[in-house]
Amino acid sequence: MQDSREKKQCLIFVRNNANDTADRIEAYAKKSGMKVVETIFNTDKKAVERLRYYIERDVIICVLVRDVVDISMELNEIKAVMTLAAEHGISINAESRGYEPALIIFPGETVVIDEYGKRIVACPTEDEAEEYIREQEE
Description:
36% helix, 5-stranded mixed beta sheet, alpha/beta, disordered N terminus, globular
């Protein structure tokens, strides 16, 4: 039996009542050859718990979001989810970044996460993180 991660399964996580956003991200996922396991609308704390459930069970290769702030307005909660995803090799890809791995800015650092959910580098500013990405692409 084929491993579920080999099937390129993803999860879509969007804000409450963001049907148009969910449809747009789902179209991107299908165009990219990914199977959408579930679309979670962030209506309450249980939504983030479901997101964690999928990450912890390694049944997806990535989480597609409009922006990481759709996960939570609490910076520490976003950091916890992104750290958990990185520990499981799952990337969180943001539509706002052209579906590139999400950047998250913490007081004093900007962390770049690769497409496999691994922490690449932490830089003091967002500009330095963007410069690092450009240098790596050259």
